[in-house]
Amino acid sequence: MTQAYIVDALRSPTGRRKGSLAHIHAIDLGASVLKPLVERNNIPAQDYDDVIFGCVDTIGSQAGNIARTSWLAAGLPLSVPGTTVDRQCGSSQQAIHFAAQAVMSGTQDVIAVGGVQTMTQVPISSAMLAGQALGFTTPFAESKLWEARFGDAPVNQFYAAQRIADHWGISRSDMEIFALESHKRALYAAKEGRFKSQIVPVEGLSIDETPRQSTLEKMAELQPVDPTYPSITAAVSSSVCDASAAMLIVSEQALKKYQLTPRARIHHISVLGDDPIWHLRAPIPATQAALKKANLSLDGIDLVEINEAFASVAMAWLKETGYSHAKTNVNGGAIALGHPLGATGVRLMTALLHELERTGGRYGLQTMCEGGGLANVSIIERL
């Protein structure tokens, strides 16, 4: 089988909500990573086979197949197609998987993958509000078949985050300690210059705006996002932000043709479904299934990136798998660096690749919870 290789990976800074990137049109934010990706690699732009982008809530500035429109906005050839993927929070990780599958099948050789999300312009509730304008209180309301199977149990990320915390015995104070560590790691990594090689400046912004100095005392003062879920506050949740990311995936034939140096090989890709009422638990069984398919154990994984949608999600994964927190999200996770929904998958992969290179590790695993009880798992091998 043909192998799929990662040649390059980059990202924008994460701009905080209503921050330095808030005014940038989503298409332009996507173009801001595609243009340098093409410029700094030795492949003529017209030779790209496809552009695959992740994006969630494709309305407003994010509508109209933003993979295609971002490519065109970057001034790149009209002949190159594009498609936009929505696997909820795992959208751009799934974009990586689709690109790898295209290369492995032998049908394509050069693919730009990425993701973009401007959560300032298109808040996470926008799609729900649009649905309400059409008379739907939720996507599941009045579905007789859904209600027959799941009843009226909430499909709600806050409910799931609280349920996971309760099930695994994770207290609010435990989560606040974890969240504070995420910020400390991100701030330390920035101070050490670890992000410089992966960030491309956007309109003068060259550093992440989302990591912040905080204390356990400040976190303890915050009110829950909903009184029904007493442990879930903004402090233990991923940061809302605006960002984009992009990656170049090619075949062995393309490596030779364009004289490229591969940085990593995609060793394994998979996705698994779980109970949608649990909503955020899927990374645990997905990781177990992926390792079995890949004939690996966590002992052989040098680094892990798991999306910190909420502290309880990552902490439950660590508890269940027994993997080392010291080797997980080593430069901070989404609590500090933000969770720009459609862009997060490639942002995490970019972080994983650069950290494997910095530390000399061989295998890195990435996973994340996704709406509807889903989780993607990717394993890459540094070359």
UniProtKB/TrEMBL annotation:
Q: What is this protein called?
A: 3-ketoacyl-CoA thiolase
Q: What are the protein's UniProt keywords?
A: Acyltransferase, Transferase
The record's GO molecular-function terms, alphabetically, read:
acetyl-CoA C-acyltransferase activity
Where does the Thiolase N-terminal domain start and stop, copy by copy?
5-253
Q: Which Pfam families match?
A: Thiolase_C (PF02803), Thiolase_N (PF00108)
| Listed PANTHER family | ACETYL-COA C-ACYLTRANSFERASE, BLR7806 PROTEIN
Q: Please name the source species.
A: Aliiglaciecola lipolytica E3
What is annotated as the active site? C89, H339, C369
